[in-house]
TrEMBL record:
The keyword Nucleotide-binding applies. It comes from the Eukaryota. This is ABCC8 protein. Residues 41-329 form the ABC transmembrane type-1 domain.
């Protein structure tokens, strides 16, 4: 019995370890199908777009700091004939950066949609060729519904859901990285706490992805009986009233509603926990280091505000990054299943003519 229990624990730990791993092979298959020219365009456009966004915020912070310092100097000199602060160079740079950011957002959106379209066409054509040339024993051992599901649901996931999730994941990841970079630039003391924070975030997201995926599946599984029972109740309302089963069906509906609400509550609580716990740590460290730097090294108020603003947004960015990572892990299962069918050996037609 002890040996059996230890074997079960080993199997459970190995299963949990496999579930905590990202399907990097399926992700590589999806990105490799994009092509050698489209993939660098996608990565470069994302990097340039977020660089311009950070530059816009930094320009505003510098503009604010210089305007405040210029006004303070005029008040100290008590000079009424002195020229006011010149806002023209800052407004020109800000306008150019905004226009460039709008163009890069358009290029990024086009690159993401183009990538999804090209990957879907390539995987669909490859899958169709493999299925057409597959041997007869493949159709005898594989259910027809499974083959149709690869062409319908999985191709729909690759076509519509994965590009949007990929764009959200890359955006939230780069926003989180840029926020940490801005905080580190404003207050270099933040780099001391960045390493333990990164380690803590890695282990938290590793276990959160498994919990989030299970809670999402639990929410979906408890929502289906609720909708089915409600539709059946509405369709058979006359019969229910004839047999006076209103209380029974009402109680059943309340039970299904409670089950779905419990799953939704746990999913929402897990997401809020991820956002508040790590976000509070980042905001606390960034605030302490910013105030310390402002007191001892005369850091400008605009840069301090910029660092604290990014620190307040890190929690939201990190939450969306982990949630999109969990969604991407689920959606990459479609690529994994199609990739499994692409390994089917074709029928040997040599000598038939």
């Amino acid at each position: 019995e002890e040996v059996t229990e230890s074997d079960d624990e080993d199997n459970l730990s190995s299963v949990l370890h496999q579930r905590a791993k990202m399907p990097w092979r399926a992700c590589g298959k999806y990105l490799s199908a994009a092509g050698i020219l489209l993939l660098p365009l996608l990565v470069l456009s994302q990097l340039l777009k977020h660089t311009v966004m950070v530059a816009i915020d930094y320009c505003l912070a510098r503009w604010t700091s210089d305007a405040i310092s210029g006004k303070t100097e005029l008040e100290l000199k008590n000079c009424s004939r002195c020229e006011d602060f010149n806002h023209s160079p800052y407004s020109k740079v800000f306008s150019i950066l905004c226009c460039l950011g709008i163009v890069l957002c358009l290029v990024t959106s086009i690159a993401v949609e183009w990538t999804g379209l090209k990957v879907t066409k390539k995987l669909h054509s490859s899958l169709l060729n493999k299925i057409i040339l597959a041997p007869m024993r493949f159709f005898e051992t594989t259910p027809l519904g499974s083959i149709l599901n690869r062409f319908s649901a999985d191709c729909n996931t690759i076509d519509q859901h994965i590009p949007a999730t990929l764009e959200c994941l890359s955006r939230s990841t780069l926003l989180c990285v840029s926020a940490l970079a801005v905080i580190s630039y404003v207050t270099p003391m933040f780099l001391i706490a960045l390493v333990p924070l990164a380690i803590m975030c890695y282990f938290i997201q590793k276990y959160f992805r498994v919990a989030s995926r299970d809670l999402q599946q639990l929410d979906d599984s408890t929502q289906l009986p609720l909708l089915s029972h409600f539709s059946e109740t509405v369709e058979g309302l006359t019969t229910i009233r004839a047999f006076r089963y209103e209380a029974k069906f009402r109680q059943k509906l309340l039970e299904y509603t409670d089950s779905n609400n419990i799953a939704s509550l746990f999913l929402t609580a897990a997401n809020r926990w991820l956002e508040e716990y790590i976000g509070a740590c980042v905001v606390l460290i960034a605030a302490v280091t910013s105030i310390t730097s402002c007191l001892y090294s005369k850091l400008s108020s605009g840069l301090v505000g910029l660092g604290l603003t990014y620190a307040l947004m890190v929690s939201n960015y990190l939450n969306w990054m982990v949630r999109n990572l969990a969604d991407m892990e689920i959606q990459l299962g479609a690529v994994k299943r199609i990739n499994g069918l692409l390994k089917t050996e074709a029928e040997n037609y040599e000598g038939l003519l």
